[in-house]
Amino acid sequence: MKRVLIVKVTSLGDIVQALPVAADIKRAFPGVEVDWAADEAFAEVVQWSTSVDRVLCAPLRRFKKARRWGDFKAIAASIAELRAYRYDFIIDIHGVYKSAIIAFLARSSKRIGYQSQDLGERGAAFAYTGRFGPRPLCDAWHGMRISASEALGYEVEGPAVYNLRLPEPATAPFAADSAPVAALFHATSKDDKKWPLPHWVAVGRELAQRGFHVVLPWGSEGERAEAEQIASQVPGSTVLPKLSVTEIAQMIDACALVVGTDTGFVHMAHALLKRTVMIFVATSPDHCGIDAPYRSISIGDGRSVPSIAQALEAIDYVHSESHVSAMQHGSAAA
Questions:
Q1: What pLDDT sits at residue 71?
Q2: pLDDT above 70: percentage of residues in the chain
Q3: How many Å apart are CA 13 and CA 266, to the nearest integer?
Q4: Three-class HEC string of 136-197
Q5: Domains of the chain: which residue ranges?
Q6: What pLDDT sits at residue 76?
Q7: Are 182 and 255 in contact (CB under 8 A)?
Q8: Which fold, 3-152?
């Protein structure tokens, strides 16, 4: 096998958690070229993966919102790039119309997608010449690895490998001699996923007392206002300026701890091997959570609001000195 195309178009957290599929394929088939089709908004994240050889992208999301002629021309141009190679396999691990159309337009006689009951949009089935097996009983992230392995005929081995290499920042996100930094990702794409602001204040205060410099990123004006509310009650905390996706990733990479709701940047923190606590209020931790012994943990049941005590217990789990020592000892033994 010489070349494989993975189709996973959006969104940030899903793309981050799908990256181990590329690493699995590289391990199973040394020398294979792995291409990836994504929306332009998330292409840079895929480009950070050392397991992906070529990233194909188009401004699909932007065109859907604005219907600009320039974006339409960019999409048309991307089709030629998509068809530049013939693929041995196309693996659509997204399963909606837009990913199916990409799979259909690319050149291959083997286009594999989900079974109808597992598709995000059932009409996407038109594009496929073969189907994955039934969705396995595991979280969504491991499920993608299983589906791809079944389609290509290899065994999934070991924990997920993300292989992210970020570009070097122009300037260090934080001073080298500053206190350890804890980032609180309080913002979410949906209101029902929010954790109460008083809870963020309580956790922020506790982290400040423990010697952390608490920082608060944001994406919209409403999120900035909420960040300022939290910061006004957490001594020494900082509301960060507006940052790009790359700048946020570089900031995360410089942090000692990340606490946040079920959002893409918190998934990124997990993929960057940071000590991470993910808080679930309205989504399923069993389906979308993160977990790595002593490093990443999900809290909440997806039906109720996790308590402050639960969050602090989780922070202790991922950041206690005994667990840090245990991880270092394990690494040395390996």
A1: 61
A2: 91
A3: 8
A4: CCCCHHHHHHHHHHHHHCCCCCCCCCCCECCCCCCCCCCCCCCCCEEEEECCCCCHHHCCCH
A5: 3-152, 181-333
A6: 73
A7: yes
A8: Rossmann fold (3.40.50)
8 contacts 99 by C-beta, under 8 angstroms: yes
Give the CA diameter of the chain: 60
Could you tell me which residues come within 8 angstroms of residue 281 by beta carbon, excluding any fewer than 6 positions away? 192, 193, 194, 195, 261, 262, 300, 302, 304, 305, 306
- Kindly indicate the confidence band of residue 320, based on its pLDDT and cuts at 50, 70 and 90: confident
CA–CA distance, 127 with 113 (Å, rounded to integer) = 8
Crossing angle for the helix pair 197-209 and 221-231, nearest 10 degrees?
A: 50
In this model, does residue 136 exceed pLDDT 60? yes
Judge whether 3-152 and 181-333 match in fold.
yes
Q: Residue 298 has which token pair?
A: 């999900």
| Topology, domain 181-333 | Rossmann fold (3.40.50)
Binned at pLDDT 50, 70 and 90, residue 327 comes out as very low
CA 180/CA 176 separation, integer angstroms:
10
